[in-house]
Specification:
heterodimer; A: mainly alpha; 4 helices; 73% helix; B: mainly alpha; Arc Repressor Mutant, subunit A; 10 helices; 0% strand; globular
């Protein structure tokens, strides 16, 4: 008896779900849709992505090249050996610099 | 204008064609979303997403299926995604409730509830819970079969399966729903 009752209520629940009426929309929904579409369109990047990646790689390559060229052209600093030689030469040539 | 002509114009980004697409399919798309979401506002928002997504990805449509089938498939997959997202939120908010994180809960409870009118019915609450327990394919087949105009072959095309499989899915969904509802209604 109880099972039959439950069975009937479950059947009724399914039929209630089946009878949900169709939705109708107005012009406002379409206006919102067009506004959303326009918004999405604006959000799209203007720059072509592959082109942007390519440009970034080229810029990095050029920067690296400039750094290397700059390093090659820059006058080399005197090494420790050269400084010692120079000091020693000065000491020998100029006796006045010798501290008695 | 045939669907093929419409499709060609859409691929060229023609807004007039987009309006035509919306006019042709909006009722069924909105009602499909409504059957899954059971909330008018959610269904309307989701339907807008469906059309925007269709317009943006029209280039990926190979025209080996009907345009309508393709759009309804987007509507179904978006609805299922949204349901999954909400179920995930519910799980997280349950954890938040346990930890008494009221702010977290209120933030996560952004997922709206079913329409008041539907919610008022005890049976509707039970059926929504029971529907949530169905596997996706059974839920889709059963839900689509309850929307006017979807024939079993059309559901099969949307689900990319056979008509026999759809019939079997609907039958199993009904049996499962009936059994689950009997259990749930015992509590009411």
């Amino acid at each position: 008896m109880e099972h039959n009752n439950l069975n009937e209520r479950a059947r009724k629940a399914i039929s209630d779900f089946e009878s949900i009426g169709p939705l109708e929309t107005g012009a406002e929904w379409e206006q919102n849709l067009m506004a959303k579409l326009a918004q999405q369109h604006r959000r799209q990047p203007v720059i072509d992505r592959p082109a942007a990646y390519f440009a970034a790689v080229v810029i990095c390559f050029l920067l690296l090249n400039f750094t290397l060229i700059f390093e090659a052209v820059k006058p080399a600093k005197p090494g420790r050996k050269e400084i010692m030689k120079e000091v020693a030469g000065q000491l020998l040539i100029n006796p006045a610099s010798v501290n008695y | 204008m045939t669907d093929n002509e419409l499709c060609e114009k859409l691929k060229k980004g023609n807004i007039g064609a987009f309006n035509e697409l919306v006019a042709r399919y909006k009722t069924r798309v909105i009602n499909t979303c409504y059957r899954f979401m059971l909330n008018r506002e959610d269904a309307e928002d989701l339907a807008q997403e469906v059309f925007i997504s269709a317009f943006q990805s029209i280039h990926s449509f190979r025209q080996d299926a009907q345009l309508s089938t393709w759009i309804y498939r987007i509507a179904v997959s978006k609805s299922l995604d949204e349901i999954k997202k909400r179920n995930r939120k519910k799980r997280i908010s349950a954890v938040g409730r346990m930890l008494k994180l009221e702010d977290v809960i209120s933030y996560l409870a952004g997922g709206s509830k079913p329409d008041k009118q539907l919610e008022s019915s005890e049976k509707m609450v039970a059926i929504m819970a029971a529907l949530n327990m169905l596997p996706d394919n059974q839920r889709v087949a059963f839900t689509l079969s309850k929307i006017d105009g979807y024939s079993n072959p059309e559901i099969a095309a949307i689900m990319e399966t056979t008509t026999d499989a759809v019939e079997s899915l609907i039958k199993r969904a009904k049996q499962k729903l009936q059994a689950d509802l009997e259990q749930r209604l015992r509590g009411y």
